[in-house]
């Protein structure tokens, strides 16, 4: 990833997540019935960070454990047969479950929309939320399904061949969003397939 | 994973991955909606040349919970005759578009043969071959053991079984469960002791990665779990492996008295079906430390994990 | 090797006899280059390399670099005819034998019908004569139907045209000690020998492979070494007691070797054979469950292989015999337990012996001639085989290129069996020529009068004469 160029650094990422937290609160008119479900791997950490900011902004929002969880979508993906077999991520719901609550799905990058499609399916197996919303750190376009995000950290126009990589302190040791061109030599094409689970958030199909 | 034929096929990392996937599968099985779309469009053939209702049902449930199409073929009692049958059945399955075959067969090595003889390209999951191996049984035993020991002691799930002391008691000679368990538990770092009359330990057992003993009473106070094997009377064929059922029970049966020799936390396991009153008494089988029913439930999760790892990825070239 | 035919003057070869053959510069038993003139079915003259002139009409075989051995004699071959012509026929088995350097084979009695009467052994003998590529010597069954219950008519078989001298229930053990004693005693009257398949039946019920480390892991029922050794121990004591000659088939364990060594030291008239596969292969090969390695007696351990090699070297084991056991593909292309036991061996025996015994320095070529020719001929009472390559002796010989190396390709073998355990292995040595009674039957590694590729076709030609001697 020699030609990777940062588009967001740690301070901006922090500010963006704070804004998303406020947007979520505003849209929901408070923290009542809110559940934030992150999509592993990086979405889980983003959901937790957004939830922390939400609790800070709205002290009545309740303990973090009541507010945040994770939703693994691997077993609902439509591209399993195109890739080597994946390890499963964790699914854990807050104690109250999702029935009749407002679920905000949190992911790092919105690209084709297929991950979100899988997440909606996975969610429907877990219960019947009152509403489902979507928050992403980066929207890089190129949707293949009729899906859009409710809360976007940054809209990032990209070429389809470019690759976008989100790095988070919890997983990668630093916060950054990197973009690299197709001329970046073999990495952008081989890297997602070789290392599907972590660090390959550019294409949802390669998570 | 291309095939699962022997517990020896699994590295430590591979075995732990499978157990971790099984944990996630088990979590989905606690939900109201248990069915996952993961293996939609895949065809799993349950090919049972030997009766085993519980294993067949367990695999069938696992495949169905993952939305695979399941075809069950019980060859026993059909017109299939030995020799011709396995190869020709394999060719038939290939033609029917099977993606994986779950094979139970009375011949040791049958699964290995189906996987490697060049008859077909399907993935093979060994659901018990003769007196050789039964890897998913060992995996569900390890899964059960790991869960129970982790509940008690906590700690890194990858290391819970390291140093765990497990006694495997009974008809080791004819037991595919024992072979798979010795291999898998060794891979996961556990300390295994086989307890059996000398007639039911195979020649060559001294080279296995475990200890052996003829004295159950001496072993029980120092174990975290005791796995009781079924006495396979149908394999004894008048071989006189022990003088009488009564003597076997007296010397190697897990009864109430022996139950009380175990440490408080130790578990009682049995792969089923049990010969109550022969290798295990009702008191032991039904005691709170018995995991026998739990093992059955965990079997579905472990088999879902095995099918997932075998079939969810890209098609083999 | 090259052959040239000098123009034959009319009438030179008398009443169907083969024209003379001059073998030039062959290394006799691996030693000095020697010329051998073969005429009238005998070795007519010998001389130093390059010293003999080819008479008119003689075929000249240039054999520089080749080792000349007396024609090989197999004491243990399954030709399957009558009854299992889908596995092998006398014709296809004879072709395989000739290509392997054999000029005589002993055809085992476990056919269908069993070779337990003069009629059946004469049928097999006659089929062998009709094919004419090797001398086929039938082995007679010891007991009726190999059932181990009562003696077959050993005398009738011995005095039949087939002149049976070796009696064996091979495939089954003559396990009843009284019956074995009677057989040993009875065959003395016909100068015969009982060739025992030493396998205690009770200790090997359902046995699938050598009992040991590998069987314990594979969950295949074990075949303990003691099941062989106990029978050999009993039989050498019986042979000693009644003063009879005993031959032990396919010895496979280190313990058997020790018992034989003890018996020979004690003066018991016992001989023994080992198969090529037990000199090279071990039970480790079974780990893949490929039934091509399923054989009776089973492949044993490395220690057994070493002991057997030593035993051949020091003469404790007298003979290498192939136990050539062809099977149709379907009898091996299945799961282990359902598969038939046995391996082909006629076309690889000499190469395996070279690999296991010559290249390891245990045997010289003269010893190879002993274990593959003179000793088996003596045990089988084949007077005109296994003789030295000297003037006046029968002209059975084989020319071997010891420098050749070739991967084994069972599909190219003349036997109908494809169950060679050496598939893909590179083995040394190549049989270049085989001469039976002065007539070359193999030249340039191919049957005379056929292209090498014809080999497989022979299988379907069968033997229309098959029913001639059936009773």
Automatic annotation (TrEMBL), chain A:
One example of a Gene Ontology biological process annotation: regulation of DNA-templated transcription
Biased composition (Low complexity): 181-207
One Pfam assignment: Pribosyltran
UniProt-listed Enzyme Commission number(s): 2.4.2.9
Highest taxon, organism lineage: Bacteria
Motif range (PRPP-binding): 103-115
EC class (word): transferase
Keyword Glycosyltransferase found: yes
Reaction it catalyzes: UMP + diphosphate = 5-phospho-alpha-D-ribose 1-diphosphate + uracil
Domain Phosphoribosyltransferase: 7-151
Span list, region Disordered: 177-207
Functional description taken from the UniProt entry: Regulates the transcription of the pyrimidine nucleotide (pyr) operon in response to exogenous pyrimidines.
UniProt cross-references to PANTHER family, sorted A to Z: BIFUNCTIONAL PROTEIN PYRR (PTHR11608)
Protein name in the entry: Bifunctional protein PyrR
Species this chain originates from: Pseudokineococcus marinus
Gene (name only): pyrR
From TrEMBL, chain B:
Chain sites annotated for binding L-aspartate: 82, 176, 230
Pathway connected to this protein: Pyrimidine metabolism; UMP biosynthesis via de novo pathway; (S)-dihydroorotate from bicarbonate: step 2/3
Residues annotated for carbamoyl phosphate binding in this entry: 54-55, 104, 134, 137, 272-273
EC class (word): transferase
An example molecular function term from Gene Ontology annotations: amino acid binding
InterPro entries from the UniProt entry: Asp/Orn_carbamoyltranf_P-bd, Asp/Orn_carbamoylTrfase, Asp/Orn_carbamoylTrfase_sf, Asp_carbamoyltransf, Asp_carbamoyltransf_Asp/Orn-bd
Lineage: superkingdom: Bacteria
EC number from the UniProt entry: 2.1.3.2
Domain Aspartate/ornithine carbamoyltransferase carbamoyl-P binding: from-to ranges: 2-146
Keywords for the protein's UniProt record, in alphabetical order: Pyrimidine biosynthesis, Transferase
Domain Aspartate/ornithine carbamoyltransferase Asp/Orn-binding: 163-310
Gene Ontology CC annotations of this record: cytosol
Reactions catalysed, as given in the entry: carbamoyl phosphate + L-aspartate = N-carbamoyl-L-aspartate + phosphate + H(+)
One GO-annotated biological process of the protein: 'de novo' pyrimidine nucleobase biosynthetic process
UniProt entry tagged with the keyword Transferase: yes
Cited PANTHER family: ASPARTATE CARBAMOYLTRANSFERASE, ORNITHINE CARBAMOYLTRANSFERASE, MITOCHONDRIAL
General function of this protein: Catalyzes the condensation of carbamoyl phosphate and aspartate to form carbamoyl aspartate and inorganic phosphate, the committed step in the de novo pyrimidine nucleotide biosynthesis pathway.
Subunit details: Heterododecamer (2C3:3R2) of six catalytic PyrB chains organized as two trimers (C3), and six regulatory PyrI chains organized as three dimers (R2).
Family (UniProt): Belongs to the aspartate/ornithine carbamoyltransferase superfamily. ATCase family.
The protein's name: Aspartate carbamoyltransferase
Native source organism of the sequence: Pseudokineococcus marinus
Gene designation per UniProt: pyrB
TrEMBL record, chain C:
Active-site residues per Swiss-Prot or TrEMBL entry: 323
GO molecular function annotation: allantoinase activity; dihydroorotase activity; zinc ion binding
Annotated residues for binding of substrate: 78-80, 110, 296, 327
Cofactor entry: Zn(2+)
Domain of life where this protein originates: Bacteria
Enzyme class: hydrolase
CDD domains: DHOase_IIa
Keyword Cytoplasm: no
Keywords attached to this entry: Hydrolase, Metal-binding, Pyrimidine biosynthesis, Zinc
Reactions catalysed: (S)-dihydroorotate + H2O = N-carbamoyl-L-aspartate + H(+)
Disordered: region residues: 403-424, 451-471
Family matches, as InterPro entries: DHOase, DHOase/Allantoinase_Hydrolase, DHOase_cat, Dihydroorotase_CS, Metal-dep_hydrolase_composite, Metal_Hydrolase
Binding annotation for Zn(2+) 1: 76, 78, 170, 323
Co-factor binding comment: Binds 2 Zn(2+) ions per subunit.
Entries under Pfam families matching the protein: DHOase
Sequence positions that bind Zn(2+) 2: 170, 197, 250
Family: Belongs to the metallo-dependent hydrolases superfamily. DHOase family. Class I DHOase subfamily.
Name of the featured protein: Dihydroorotase
């Amino acid at each position: 990833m020699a030609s990777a160029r940062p588009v967001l650094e740690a301070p901006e990422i922090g500010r963006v997540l704070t804004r998303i937290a406020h947007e979520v609160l505003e849209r929901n008119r408070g923290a009542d019935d809110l559940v934030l479900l992150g999509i592993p791997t990086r979405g889980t950490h983003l959901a937790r960070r957004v939830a922390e900011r939400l609790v800070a902004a709205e002290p009545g929002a309740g303990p973090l454990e009541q507010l945040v969880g994770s939703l693994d979508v691997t077993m609902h993906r439509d591209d399993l047969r195109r890739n080597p077999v994946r390890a499963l991520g964790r699914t854990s719901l807050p104690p109250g479950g999702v029935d009749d609550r407002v679920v905000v799905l949190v992911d790092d990058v919105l690209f084709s929309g297929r991950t979100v499609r899988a997440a909606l399916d996975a969610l429907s197996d877990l219960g019947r939320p009152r509403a489902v919303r979507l928050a992403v750190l980066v929207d890089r376009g190129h949707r293949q399904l009729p899906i859009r995000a409710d809360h976007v950290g940054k809209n990032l126009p990209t070429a389809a061949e470019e690759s976008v990589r989100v790095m988070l302190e919890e997983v990668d040791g630093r916060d950054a969003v990197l973009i690299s061109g197709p001329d970046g030599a073999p990495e952008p094409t081989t890297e997602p397939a070789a290392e599907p689970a972590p660090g390959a958030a550019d294409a949802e199909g390669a998570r | 994973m291309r095939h699962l034929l022997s517990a020896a096929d699994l590295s430590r990392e591979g075995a732990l991955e499978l157990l971790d996937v099984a944990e996630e599968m088990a979590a989905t099985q606690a939900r109201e909606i248990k069915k996952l779309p993961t293996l939609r469009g895949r065809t799993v053939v349950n090919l049972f040349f030997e009766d085993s209702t519980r294993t067949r049902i367990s695999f069938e449930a696992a495949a169905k919970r993952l939305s695979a199409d399941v075809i069950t073929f019980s060859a026993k009692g059909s017109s299939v005759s030995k020799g011709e049958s396995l190869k020709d059945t394999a060719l038939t399955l290939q033609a029917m578009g099977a993606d994986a075959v779950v094979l139970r067969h009375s011949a040791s090595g049958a699964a290995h043969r189906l996987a490697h003889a060049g008859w077909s390209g399907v993935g093979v999951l060994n659901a018990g071959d003769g007196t050789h191996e039964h890897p998913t049984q060992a995996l569900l035993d390890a899964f059960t053991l790991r869960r129970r020991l982790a509940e008690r002691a906590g700690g890194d799930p990858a290391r819970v079984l390291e140093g765990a002391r497990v006694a495997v008691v009974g008809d080791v000679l004819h037991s595919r469960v024992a072979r798979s368990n010795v291999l898998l538990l060794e891979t996961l770092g556990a300390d295994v002791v086989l307890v059996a009359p000398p007639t039911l330990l195979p020649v060559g057992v001294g080279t296995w990665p475990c200890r052996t003993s003829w004295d159950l009473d001496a072993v029980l106070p120092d174990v975290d779990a005791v796995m009781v094997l079924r006495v396979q009377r149908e394999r004894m064929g008048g071989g006189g492996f022990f003088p009488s059922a009564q003597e076997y029970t007296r010397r190697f049966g897990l009864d109430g008295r022996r139950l009380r020799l175990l440490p408080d936390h130790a578990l009682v396991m049995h792969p089923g079906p049990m010969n109550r009153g022969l290798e295990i008494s009702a008191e032991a089988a039904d005691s709170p430390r018995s995991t026998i029913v739990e093992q059955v439930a965990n079997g579905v999760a472990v088999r879902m994990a095995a099918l997932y790892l075998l079939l969810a990825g890209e098609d083999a070239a | 090797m090259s052959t040239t035919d000098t123009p034959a003057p009319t009438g030179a070869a008398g009443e169907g006899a083969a024209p003379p053959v001059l073998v030039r510069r062959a290394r006799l038993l691996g030693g000095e280059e020697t010329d051998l003139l073969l005429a009238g079915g005998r070795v007519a003259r010998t001389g130093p390399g390059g010293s003999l002139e080819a008479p008119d009409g003689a075929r000249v075989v240039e054999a520089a670099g080749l080792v000349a051995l007396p024609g090989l004699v197999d004491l243990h071959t399954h030709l399957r005819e009558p009854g299992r012509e889908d596995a092998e026929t006398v014709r296809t088995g004879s072709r395989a034998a000739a290509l392997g350097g054999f000029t005589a084979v002993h055809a085992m009695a476990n056919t269908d019908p069993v070779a337990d009467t003069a009629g059946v052994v004469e049928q097999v003998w006659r089929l062998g004569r009709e094919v004419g590529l090797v001398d086929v010597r039938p082995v007679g069954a010891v007991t009726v139907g190999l059932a181990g219950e009562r003696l077959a008519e050993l005398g009738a078989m011995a005095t039949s045209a087939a002149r049976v001298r070796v009696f064996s229930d091979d495939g089954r053990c003559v396990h009843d000690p009284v019956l074995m004693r009677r057989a040993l005693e009875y065959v003395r009257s016909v100068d015969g020998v009982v060739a025992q398949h030493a396998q205690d039946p009770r200790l090997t019920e359902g046995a699938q492979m050598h009992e040991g480390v590998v069987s314990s892991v594979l969950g295949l029922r074990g075949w303990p070494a003691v099941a062989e050794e106990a029978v050999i121990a009993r039989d050498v004591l019986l042979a000693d007691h009644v003063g009879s000659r005993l031959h032990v088939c396919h010895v496979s364990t280190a313990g058997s070797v020790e018992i034989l060594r003890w018996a020979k030291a004690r003066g018991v008239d016992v001989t023994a054979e080992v198969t090529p596969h037990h000199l090279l292969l071990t039970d480790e090969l079974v780990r893949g469950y490929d039934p091509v390695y399923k054989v009776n007696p089973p492949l044993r351990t490395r220690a057994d292989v070493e002991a057997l090699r030593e035993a051949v070297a020091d003469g404790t084991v007298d003979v290498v015999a192939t136990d050539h056991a062809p099977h149709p593909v379907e009898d091996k292309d299945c799961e282990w337990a359902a598969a038939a036991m046995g391996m082909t061996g006629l076309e690889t025996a000499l190469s395996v012996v070279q690999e296991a015994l010559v290249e390891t320095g245990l045997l010289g070529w003269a010893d190879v001639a002993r274990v593959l020719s003179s000793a088996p001929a003596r045990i089988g009472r084949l007077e005109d085989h296994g003789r030295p390559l000297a003037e006046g002796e029968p002209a059975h010989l084989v020319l071997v290129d010891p420098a050749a190396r070739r991967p084994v390709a069972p599909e190219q073998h003349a036997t109908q069996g494809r169950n060679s355990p050496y598939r893909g292995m590179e083995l040394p040595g190549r049989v270049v020529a085989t001469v039976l009674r002065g007539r070359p039957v193999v030249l340039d590694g191919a049957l005379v009068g056929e292209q090498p590729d014809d080999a497989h076709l022979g299988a379907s030609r069968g033997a229309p004469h098959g029913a001639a001697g059936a009773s």
